[in-house]
Amino acid sequence: MMSRSYTNLLDLAEGNFAALGPNGGGGRRRSGSFGMKRMSRVMTVPGTLSELDGEDDSEPAATNSVASDVPSSVSGERLLVVSNQLPIVARRRPDGRGWSFSWDDDSLLLQLRDGVPDDMEVLFVGGVRADVPAAEQDEVAQALYDRFRCAAVFLPESLHDRFYHRFCKRTLWPLFHYMLPFSASVSPPSSTTSSSAPSPPDNGRFDRGAWEAYVLANKFFFEKVVEVINPEDDYVWVHDYHLMALPTFLRRRFNRLRIGFFLHSPFPSSEIYRTLPVREEILKALLNCDLIGFHTFDYARHFLSCCSRMLGIEYQSKRGYIGLEYFGRTVGIKIMPVGVHMDQLQSVLSLPDRQWRVSELQQQFQGKTVLLGVDDMDIFKGINLKLLAFENLLRTHPKWQGRAVLVQIAKPVRGKGKDLEAIEAEIRESHNRINREFGHSGYSPVILIDRDVSSVEKSAYFTIAECVVVTAVRDGMNLTPYEYIVCRQGITGSESSSEVCGLKKSMLVVSEFIGCSPSLSGAIRVNPWNVEATAEAMNEAISMSDQEKQLRHEKHYRYVSTHDVAYWSKSFIQDLERACKDHFRRTCWGIGLGFGFRVVALDPHFTKLNMDSIVMAYERSESRTILLDYDGTLVPQTSINKTPSAEVLRIINTLCSDKRNVVFIVSGRSRDKLGEWFSSCPKLGLAAEHGYFLRWTRDEEWQTCAQASDFRWMEMAEPVMNLYTEATDGSYIETKESALVWHHQDADSGFGSSQAKEMLDHLESVLANEPVSVKSGQFIVEVKPQGVSKGVIAEKILASMKERGKQADFVLCIGDDRSDEDMFENIADVIKRGMVAPKTPLFACTVGQKPSKAKFYLDDTFEVATMLSTLADATDPEPMTGLADELSASISSIDIGGEQTESSDRPFRGL
What does each C-alpha distance from 429 to 211, 265, 445, 469, 495 come to in angstroms? Predict the structure, then answer.
């Protein structure tokens, strides 16, 4: 029975708001939708606008197929930038009779337009940073769309509080910054930026009601996107952790929509993230995107590790691109740190007020060495650690007493919390203590500026500072070092007398826990928790020669000036286009409920095996070959009891009873185990250990189908495997007659995979001169003789049938893992090689919807059994002739190495 919490998720995802109680009742007003004058809208399902306004997402047309993506009358590509807040500054007019709006020039969302192609329109979707009364929301929304191409989302106040303050800022933000609520009194601070956070005083434990509000708020954003989207031409770029559920809503409505997501905060390690009760729901929602972006490889690596450990999805790297195969779709992973807006900084540097302010500061700090910190007043910015390190610097290097000054700009934030108040008290206490101990008349070692500082004043401080120090203990990106480098460079092509005289130089001391740290190779990286090491880094930075400072500055400036915000957005959009290039070529449909929803995307030539087609081909044929894998095909991979069921044995015996059928189990299992399990099937053929051993009937002797007789290589391989087994808890070695297999399905998934890759390289090196092949599979590494595979044994069976005048005119082979791909590949061209009759229908079928060399698929072992049972019902059981005896006598002597005469006839494809 479903828990109430899970049914709530389904209610939210299905749009059943009435089930959530009075706060989410079905009679709610859709704030921000338009009244008499409506925003342009594209119809995505048949019907009228009024029908769409009140639609229920359970409509089959909108959820179960790509029919929802009907062509639109709107032409031209657009980019929909969706974020929690619009890049708009909204102010109430002085007379109180309306609103004035302007672009927020400091907003990253606005700045990213510089990297968008000229022929691509940008439309913004998000909330308004102002409390707009409900009566004015329609008018405000229309004005924002008409003048700024911004679609405003208005959330009811109670919903916004639960969504933003309670879940985003009290659950996700601390967790993504590696902070766990160890006690009920924990309450992270508040902030209004994506990397800082306001939070009311309350506990930080997971709140199911807040999660439901988060999903409901994402539903509001989804509805606004639907109002303005053209699904066939538009790209959607979702920003940050506030909207991580949105991709599921979008993908469920528009199966082929092109969706990108960028996370502007850190992504925690799997050990931290796994504590989130809704961890899988969020991962699955993000995997409904086509491209997911992160600032650094560390953040991406943590996300990939979570997908591996919690969803069992492994990533692959191809030609420099990282991708996750998710139900036939490749979800791209983009690693690209954001940059600064060079033109905006240059314009600030050219302002007259800035020139005057620089001269004033140079006079104020004449003869002093200025170290600068610019941070939000935030528990993760490490301001007090910076003060402690500077105190240590003055104590251990007395030469800087009276000469070094730390200017700390601490931007205040709205909202308060117990932790933030404690941090502020610590900072002020350290500030006063240092100034009392080391200060004197005319000299204050620490200058604390705890007010809002204009961009002009901040750039002036950057210009006169010898070193900028960033000691954040965790931060998503932090562009302060980039801004400092640009300000120290000055106006391009200008030499102003008020600028810093002499060489253009700068120095940085940065925490290794911030996103920009990897890109600043000339900076001195520190662990901010190590106060002594940070103090020594400060001393090294300000003691360094001017020439060395210049070289490091030039290196940094080259990077910052070329990797600006336009470069970042252009690169992301290009990769999004590449990730979506096959969207309208592939067959797509949606499956699953709630956050389990995903789109299955398959090659148009990869189709589900049609029962009617295979039965028709089966009944028309006179010489049939049926090759069946065992594990994962006849019994589920997850089954503990691997013994074949009575129903499976009945079906196999029925198929074997027809003299026109040759039925084989082709498995990696040992011959003893297969012989034991299928002892009740006298006419069934068995190919054990991937075809090394073969037996045509129960009464026949086992034959060896490979020429390998020297197994001394096992003495070389087994010690290597033992080393990894001892070091990898949960792994074990399976010793077969012809092969050695190392299993790691019960080991830690990440460590087991890593050990398997290492073992593969190790064994390939040790056995380089031996007649063996080393291959990896699903949780295994196997060493076996060369020339042994399911593909080879399939060819031998078909060749033997042809040799005895019983050339196959129907071929069915089914399997589920990598070893079966050899079988699918080898039978693909058997008609051209003349191994089967012309026009033979070939049914190569994999189990599960995944990339495969097979042309057909069935969903699971149940469907395999159903299909085989259908064939058994169409079987005409007759006494067997001596066909099996003749074939077994000739199988060892067949040579399949030569090419046969190519046939121009095409095989029957079944569908």
Answer: 38, 30, 14, 20, 42
